[in-house]
């Protein structure tokens, strides 16, 4: 018997409807009980971090990492919609891909990851 993937991510929200709309409008993720999100096959990293790690904000219990196909285009779209996109050269690696960070309306850190081709 083995786990075959992540079946869902459930988290609390001060305004679930507005947050659902933000994910749908900005990242194209269908959320909620009535609509699923069909993902493309690809790698998923499951990695607990030390409680004092500075990889993401210490006041957040987790960071969401999303695989993307065209990070530059998505970053430009998000910035055009007024969403701050952080990119750092030291985050990018030819073996692992390119990365950017954004935050959802309630401050959850989201790492956008374009794996290498």
Automatic annotation (TrEMBL):
Residues 5-115 form the VOC domain. PROSITE patterns: VOC. It holds the Pfam family Glyoxalase_6. This is Glyoxalase. InterPro entries: Glyas_Bleomycin-R_OHBP_Dase (IPR029068), Glyoxalase_6 (IPR041581), VOC_core (IPR037523). The lineage of its organism: Bacteria, Bacillati, Actinomycetota, Actinomycetes, Micrococcales. It comes from the Bacteria. Gene3D superfamilies: 2,3-Dihydroxybiphenyl 1,2-Dioxygenase, domain 1.
């Amino acid at each position: 018997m083995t786990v075959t993937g992540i079946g869902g991510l459930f988290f609390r929200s001060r305004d679930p409807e507005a947050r659902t709309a933000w994910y749908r409008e900005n990242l194209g993720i269908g959320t909620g009980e009535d609509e699923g999100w069909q993902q493309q096959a690809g790698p998923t990293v499951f990695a607990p971090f030390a409680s004092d790690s500075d990889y993401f904000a210490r006041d957040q219990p987790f960071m969401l990492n999303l695989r993307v196909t065209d990070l530059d285009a998505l970053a430009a779209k998000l910035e055009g919609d007024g969403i701050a996109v952080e990119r750092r050269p030291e985050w990018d690696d030819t073996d692992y891909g390119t990365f950017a960070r954004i935050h959802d309306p309630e401050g959850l850190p989201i790492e956008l990851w374009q794996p290498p081709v």
